[in-house]
Amino acid sequence: MFSFLQKIGKSLMFPIATLPAAALLLRLGQDDVFDIPFMSAAGAGIIDNLAIIFAIGIAMGLAHDGNGGAALAGAIAYLVLTSAIVTINESIDMGVFAGILSGIVGGLLYNKFYNVKFPQWLAFFGGRRFVPIITAATMTILAGLLGYAWPPIQEGIDSAGEWILNAGMFGVGAYGFLNRLLLPTGLHHVINTVVWFDFGTFTSPSGEVVRGEINRFLKGDPTAGPFLSGFFPIMMFGLPAACLAMYATAKRERKAIVGGMLFSIAFTSFLTGITEPIEFSFMFLSPILYVVHALLTGASMMVAYALDIHHGFGFSAGAIDYVLNYGLAKNPLMLLVMGLVVGVIYFIVFYFLIIKLDLKTPGREDEDDDGAENASSSNNAVDVRAYHTIEGLGGVDNIVAVDYCTTRLRMTVKDSDLVNEKDLKRHGAMGVMKINKTNVQVVIGTAVEFLGDAMKPRVANGNPVPSDSSKKAVVENETTEEPAMKRVIAKDFEMPIQGEIIPLSEVPDDVFAKGMMGQGFAIIPSGNILHSPVDGRVVSVFPTKHAIGIETDTGIEILIHVGLDTVKLKGEGFETLVEQGQLVQRGDALLKLDLEFLKANAPSVATPIIFTNLTEQKVTVMKNGFQEQGAASILKVE
Q1: CA–CA separation, 33 vs 221, rounded Å?
Q2: What is the pTM for the complete model shown?
């Protein structure tokens, strides 16, 4: 459940990323700034349709491959839900929750049915084309249920929202405290979405009803802002002061090294309100220090409320949003006074706790951690850093998927115990969090996109040693090691397609039958979708689509050749579902077949599965006869 909520929190970043542009357009178009109505209308076009944007973004974020088919399913889910539910109760307005629910349903249904197979006469509606159909049907049923169930749910949410809104400074203080406390888990995005886009209602002069703290503030609600104002002193002054305290407490010989890094993340927090690089630099070194930070955030929210300060943001509480929305704010100058006081408090508290508890904040590490800061300097190429980050994560063999959000690498690994936290920090990571056995988050900072994009091709290519001359020692060390044994254990190989297993000797083609291409076996397929039998990388997709090459994470090369003489069909009867260089896992769809066409136009549909680069190893086929797609323990390579 925790992992699922994390995925939703991550998926929320897609639609939330549109807010800065929307807020900028909406604000600049107002009559007290540039007075350009069409600019305001452009921004309102995003703000007013956040629910469907959430539906699209979440569905795409939850989809296992990020495919646009999931986004379409999310949009259809939202349209069906909102159109059908009002016929039962026309007063129902689910707001952004309709988008969240639709996105979740669309994404989950996409993952479930993207490769569904139907008989030939219904084949057109199979695969991804079936997802919008099942989504529409599912949401119709849900709309019927929610038409009666949602009013009491909404009443409960409204009651909770009213309690928090009416709890005065204690309500905003509790929200500020939880907002920071949940940040390590990524679940702060979930509570932010509720507060920012659903709590409270406001009717604009034009008669439009808007919900949520951000929407109400940007549309001119004079009561909006208490749940946003108190973040400005923390992000613009408090956390930068914490960086100053960490610099002041750093060892004298390391101040020059950590000074540049601390200044850059402090300035990022002040200007943009992106605080994770700072928070992760001390979050795991001292949970006490982080709890104090969360308490100070709650206190800042309470003081801002007590001083009747109303300010807001479209992205985060940095200087950009402070200046941009100054004209909409109430008592905004008091935030600067608050900020100076908060900055002093943060410096004193952090300085005292770091010294008193001897915390290993940046620049205070033990000698064996020397060099942890150097990797973040501009002297090291991103490619070299990507190499070391992959190695610190346990190497290519341990990495399942590379993903990232605003400041973090969000890694799916096979075993989080293989992740070397010290090594990752030595090469620039600001923090490492092992969510569970297979999910790890590595805090990089705002340059995470460049690092993540550099890592992906490296993972796909086996993470070769960088050509940089400073890495010669790495090459020398690696060349002394014995080469890894190419092997596949039984549980790591699955039946790629439904059908009958036959030995290679029965394939009506001498090249395959006599093993000239390599060891293996063959399948007489009866299914229409060819799936990857192993975890690995697609190394080749033939232009005629009839064959696909895969390299396993242990270096074994597999050729899947669908049918005999099918190269002459020039791609007809095949639809490729992957691209060359793409990472795949067992069960991922590779190729869609028009099996009836192939039977009618090819000499044979026998499909050899060949291991092309084995020398000393032996392929042992453990099953024969008919097998379902996905059946395990088909063979082993030893």
Answers
A1: 18
A2: 0.48
